[in-house]
Structure formats: C-alpha cells, structure tokens
Amino acid sequence: MFVKKVLMIVFVSVIYLINLNIPVAAEENEQDIIFSPNWMLENGYKEEVEENQEILPFATRVNVNWKVGLKTEKKTKTFHKNAGSKITVEASVFPTKKIRIGIVAKSIGRMYVETTDMAKKTFNIKKTGEYSVFVTNKSDSTIHVVGNYTK
C-alpha cells in the first residue's frame, strides 16, 4: 500500500511539473489604452481619409493595407456604432516605427495605443455615435500598415 501511495505521488508530481512549461499567449498585447478628449488632428500633421473603402454591408471585419506618410494620420470613413458594442483593431507596421492606432469620434475624442511593430486591441464603445479607425505615423519616414478592424 505504501509503494502505491509513493508511486501515485511521484506520478502526480511528474504530471504537475510537465504542465508548468506550457507557453501561454495572450489574445491582445498588454498595451494600455490612451484616452484624449481632443478629436482634432495634432498640429503639424496632415489627414488622409481612406477613399477606396469597399461597401460591405454584412461584413464585420475590414482589411487595411495603407501607406502612411510622415506626420500623417490616415483614417477610415466614419461608421455607426452603438453603445455596448466593440471595435477591434489589429495591425502591423513596416518598417518598425512609432505609430498610434485606435478609434476617434467627435463625441468621445480619441482612444488609442502606441506601438512600433504590431497591435491588437479591443475598444469598448460606451457612447453611440460615428467612429473612425485611425493610424498616426509618428516617425520621420513613410510606413506601411497592414491589418484589419471590426465594424
């Protein structure tokens, strides 16, 4: 009986130790959302609104493949979101340069994260209104942003 108990303890310990080394990946980067009540463009930056946005009435995920010049903010056309819904933004930037990526609405201002390579963030919509997804190039050279967002 004693041998069975010892073997059981050893067996459980081995299983426990094996499971300790399982890598865990988070769904989103652990980036803090920055809030700015100012919905206006920063001084010295120019604005570009996406012109060739496809009209996809039933689509919830829209792909982004943007070239963003230096000191430029590129954003989507506005779309309607209800309070309690979410907008998820996922993007990678090439070459690795500092960008801001997030959402903007006149009624709430800006909510964004800053990154130099990639970001995936979900923004909770607390106020019904018209929203845009934006990328601000904070670097001194043109960047390429590839990703998607949910409407």
Report on this model:
This protein has 151 residues and is mainly beta. 12% of the residues lie in helices and 46% in strands. It contains one helix and eleven strands, in the order αβββββββββββ. It has one helix spanning 2-19, and strands at 34-36, 46-49, 61-68, 72-75, 79-81, 86-94, 99-105, 109-115, 118-124, 129-137, 143-150. The strands form two sheets. Strands 1, 2, 4, 5, 7, 8 and 10 form a seven-stranded mixed β-sheet that branches. It has a four-stranded antiparallel β-sheet with strand order 3-11-6-9, with no helix packed on it. The longest helix has 18 residues, at 2-19. The radius of gyration is 22 Å and the shape is elongated. The relative contact order is 0.26. Residues 20-30 have low confidence and may be disordered.
Question: Characteristics of this structure?
Answer:
151 residues, mainly beta, 7-stranded mixed sheet, 1 helix, 11 strands, 12% helix
